[in-house]
Amino acid sequence: MDWNKVDSNVERLPYLAQQLKKNTPRIKARPAKDEELFSFARQPDWKGQLTPDKLATVDALLQDYDACLSRIRACRVPLKEKKRKSDVERILYARGQEDTYDPDELYALFGSLPPEKVSALRQVIREQAWHLMDEDARERFLREWLPEPEFEDIYDLLTDFRFGGYRILGDIVCDMADENTGREKKRLFRESDSKAFTAMMRAFADKSASRSYRDAVTAKCLELLTAIVRPTLAVRYVIALGRRDLLWDLLPEYIEKNVLEVRDD
């Protein structure tokens, strides 16, 4: 395309957008060095004066803090509806089976399966190329992976590949697997959580309705942090770990005691 011959500004938009992207340099963040902001950082060996065990403990606590806030945000997001259900309805309608099979009942049937079996079924459908199987292979597959008596009534439905019918099994299994994953993400407490993580999550679960989730978790994290190291020294540990972004959340009242004096010149 010779864009010099295009005189319509609307039609030139793709070209202008391309040129804008090509000629606009990306902004590179240049954060100030620690020694430019904090008085203790002027000492060359200030990081060497920190206790390694405490540094590792603080590092683990800050990671739990981030993970706790992340899980809470994930739990506050509503579960997505079954996005492939409309595809199942389309196939049934195209085959004139919309009155014979109820999509909600089909989803409820697969919802009775354990989550781990649904995940395994999703994987094996992809690995064994369900959509390329012949009729005999399809039935053998179903009898192997769905041998329960309640599934035998829909073998004919699942093995009918007319009008894209091969998609029905995959659509339902994928939707149920996604729903199980979303439900797992919404579990606040899990067995693999550390004690610090559980304590911060408990603070969120027990907070009052008027208090924000972030304030509750931050207060508990600060309590755990000050149990590891004194607040005045905690600033150094947080900065040594490269987490200056958390200072205003956890230690705002101790920042001024550690920053360099600001001068007009």
Query: What percentage of amino acids are in beta strands?
Result: under 5%
Question: What share of the residues lie within helices?
Answer: 55-70%
Mean pLDDT comes to 90
Largest sheet: none
C-alpha Rg (nearest Å): 29 Å
Order of helices and strands: HHHHHHHHHHHHH
Distance between the termini: 55 Å
Number of helices: 13
According to DSSP, the number of beta strands is 0
Shape: extended
Query: Uncertain runs with pLDDT below 50, 5 residues or more?
Result: none
* SS-derived structural category: mainly alpha
Question: How are the elements arranged and paired?
Answer:
Layout: H1 13-23, H2 52-76, H3 85-94, H4 103-111, H5 115-127, H6 135-145, H7 149-152, H8 155-159, H9 167-185, H10 195-205, H11 213-228, H12 231-240, H13 247-250
Characterize the structure shown:
- It is a single chain.
- The chain has 265 residues and is an all-alpha fold.
- Helices cover 56% and strands 0% of the residues.
- The chain is built from 13 helices and no strands.
- The protein has helices spanning 13-23, 52-76, 85-94, 103-111, 115-127, 135-145, 149-152, 155-159, 167-185, 195-205, 213-228, 231-240, 247-250.
- Helix 2 runs parallel beside helix 10 (195-205) and helix 10 (195-205) runs antiparallel to helix 11.
- The longest helix is centred in the N-terminal third of the chain and has 25 residues, at 52-76.
- The mean pLDDT is 90.
